[in-house]
Each structure stands twice: as C-alpha cells, then as structure tokens.
Amino acid sequence: MSGDLARDGHAWLEMSLGSSVRRLRWSRGHLSRVSLVELSDGRRVVLKVRPWADRLLDCGRAQSAAAAEGIACPRVLAGPEHVAGQAYSAEEWIGGGRQLAATRAHASRFAAGLRDLVEALRGCGSDRLAGAPLPWVGWRHDGTDLWPPPDDFDADLNEHTAVSWLDDAARHARELILSASLDRVIGHGDWESQNLRWMSSALHCVYDWDSLVYEPEAALAGAAAAVYVARGGPGQAATFEQTAAFLDAYSERLPRGFTPTESGVAWAAGVWVRAFNAKKALVAASLGLPSEPLQLATLRSDLEHRLAVALRCH
C-alpha cells in the first residue's frame, strides 16, 4: 500500500472505530489491498481498500446478515464507505484454520458450506448485485459480445479468436444458463479453497465477501463445483469426478434435489468458469502478462465432456 493510501486508510480507521493504528502487521493484494492492523485499544482489525463499486454496498450488508445468521465470517465493523474513488471497510480479524484437501469425502463439506450461506442470505438486498456480475461468472453481462472484460487487466477478450472451440464452449454454456427460467439468489461467486478456512471438518471462516453475486442457485453451485479445489496455485480446478461429487452433495441438501434443468445449468456454469479462466490466461499470455499454464488438449476434452452432460440434463 502506498504511503498516502496507508495514511488515508489509517486515518479513516481512527475516525470510524475510535482508535488509532498502533502497528501494521501485514498488507497484501493487488487491485484490492487488505491489511491487518493492531489498534491502540488492542483490537486487531482488517482494513480493506479497493476501487469503489456500488455493488459493494450490497456485499457489505449481506456479509453482516450472514454473520448475524451464524455463518463463519468476519463481522463488518465499518463501511464500505466511498472515499475519493476508493471503497474503505473494516472487518474483525479471524485467524487460524487451514485449507481443506478436496477429497471426494470432503466435497460434501464444501457443498454444505455454500448451501448454508445461500440460505442465510435469502431476503438480502440484491439490486446492485443484479446488474454487476463478476466476469468469471459473468454470463449475464450486458455487453453484446460473448466475453465480458477481464477483472485484472485491460483487454477485449473478444478480439482474440485463435482458439475457436473455447469460444464455442462458453457460448453454448451461456445459452443454456440464460435460457433457463430460474429464480436468482445471493451466493458466493468465488467459492474456492483459498477463500475458506476449516477447523477439523468445521468451516472456520469464509473470506472474500466482495465476490457475492446474484444468480440461480444451480449456477452458483455449478460454478463452485468447477473450482472449489483451487488453493491459490496456477491452473488449479476440480476434476470431472470432483465436480460431480460436489453437485451430488449439493443436490442432496435441497428439499427436492436439482431438477434436470437445474443440473444442466449447474454443469454449464462450470463450463463457463473454466472457459473464462482459460480465455483470460490465453489473452494475458499473448500480451506478455503473467498467466496460468494451459494444457489445451486436456482442457478441450474436459469441457466437451462437461458440456455434453449439461446438454443431456437440460
């Protein structure tokens, strides 16, 4: 964090929480800057500074509602507040816990955690979330082209057409999702292992509440099922079998299970997420930017398999 931004953030914390910053313990991030600070009154709190977006207001309110409902997550202490183009917020610090290995036996725990979160957020305001999808789950973006803008660099993904089968997979997946008339709910759009911490087999803390989205529950589950094993390393994604285990576990927790249409939407959502991540990596590499390694032949076979399941269900 730059010196000016750090000073502004610390001054905002003192004004909002009534205690000055005694010590900065760590600070990390890129587009969003997250810092753990120790206040003069002894509290440890997390300061989050990122570019302002109206959707963050709904994210903050939903996070507070989730904490009140007993979901394992930090309580919002102040904000999000719009300050000179930035969004400032403060959260309680929850440390400890570990990432859970994504074995087949653990798939049900990942699925149950997401299902509980969705239930806790029913009835929360969603107006700002509805019109601002995150790109990796951005099949509902308002542009006329297939791909929305990426989240972390400036490029038009639609101008890069060398891998046409990847575009085709995403287009079919998007059509399947948007053609289904399903109610939408608020849920976590980045349900990856790196954003979750566990104590033994119990969910200890859910992070990254800026990634809430408003989509059909089946789509949320399907997007999560495709990537929930990701622990922060390059190219990490769920195998077909891991995805199936997650979706089976999620469906079992619904009063009536997934309908065939919902199953199709779930598998299609996973195709979109995997295709978007791959498309972004290809474009980033073409621009000389850091990117995830891709095995295109393996990815093509995997996406075709997933899309075939989605079409059979739908």
Short summary of the structure?
By secondary structure, the protein is an alpha+beta fold. Helix content is 43%, strand content 18%. It has helices at residues 3-17, 55-68, 104-120, 127-130, 164-179, 217-227, 240-252, 260-286, 296-313, and strands spanning 21-29, 33-39, 44-51, 76-83, 86-92, 184-188, 196-199, 202-206, 212-216.
Features:
about 20% strand, alpha+beta, about 325 residues, Phosphorylase Kinase, domain 1, 2 domains, 9 helices, globular, Aminoglycoside 3'-phosphotransferase, Chain: A, domain 2, single chain, two-stranded antiparallel sheet
Largest sheet: 5 strands, antiparallel
What Rg do the Cα atoms give? 20 Å
Q: How would you state the average pLDDT, rounded?
A: 93
The CATH class name of the largest domain reads Alpha Beta
Number of strands: 9
Helix content: 40-55%
Give the quaternary arrangement of the chains.
single chain
Terminal residue distance: 47 Å
Output the CATH homologous superfamily of the largest domain: Aminoglycoside phosphotransferase (APH), C-terminal lobe
| Beta-strand residue percentage | 15-25%
The count of domains is 2
The CATH topology annotation of the largest domain reads as: Aminoglycoside 3'-phosphotransferase, Chain: A, domain 2
Strand and helix order: HEEEHEEHHHEEEEHHHH
Instruction: Give the structural class.
Output: alpha+beta
CATH architecture of the largest domain: Alpha-Beta Complex
How many DSSP helices? 9
Unreliable sequence segments: none
* Spatial ordering of strands, largest sheet: 1-2-3-5-4
- Global outline: globular
Write the layout of secondary structure elements.
Layout lengths: L2 H15 L3 E9 L3 E7 L4 E8 L3 H14 L7 E8 L2 E7 L11 H17 L6 H4 L33 H16 L4 E5 L7 E4 L2 E5 L5 E5 H11 L12 H13 L7 H27 L9 H18 L1
Antiparallel strand pairs: 1-2, 2-3, 3-5, 4-5, 6-9, 7-8
